[in-house]
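Form 7-S
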Amino acid sequence: MKSLFAYKELVVFDCETTGLDPINHQIIELACCRFLLDHDHYVLQEQYDRLVKAKDPLPSNIVDLTGITDEMLARNGLDERIVATYFYDNFIANSSNKKLYIAYNAPFDIHFVGQLLRRNGLAFPNNSHFLDVLTIYKDRSSYPHKLVNAIALYKLDGTFINSHRAIDDCLACYEVLKTMAKNCDDLIRYVNLFGYNPKYPPVHRINGVRYKPQPYDSYVKLYEMIF
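Output:
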């Protein structure tokens, strides 16, 4: 992943939630993996994975999707302030390294984590850099575009899974990104560039991120429409 070597630190993160709306729904699990650049490769330095107490009973579809239950959250869930503070202190404010925040379908996770931080008086820095692995995958493969499809395409199944548990999805997302770089290391061109379905323009946009409509079945790379 030489194209990303300007970033000394990669933070891959994923969250499981009670729904799709970051204003009215909440995170019930947050996981992060920190990778530090060591000469010519990134090395995993820290993993963080915590359940978060929910205010309301979980919808049945969320229990079915994630396997997370009300009993699990009551027994092992932390107050969201504890999780937000740890994430901020250890994955945002812990060093002077130039960081890149990475997720699969990054707008979803960024908005949810952003709301989590905001409710607790914290925030991503204004100059944060983000990479959406889903945007890259849409440029490299036809529909469908779920993480499980990327895992299968790059022959990572059997080792990494899209379990809809946050830490599993973090690790799978990073391995997909590594495999993408082996095939074509143009990853740097997707930093702060998010594609979206032209039928559903984003309502809430992230400061510093460029948004471009991205046809599902086009093999013309999104960045070629810009640069």
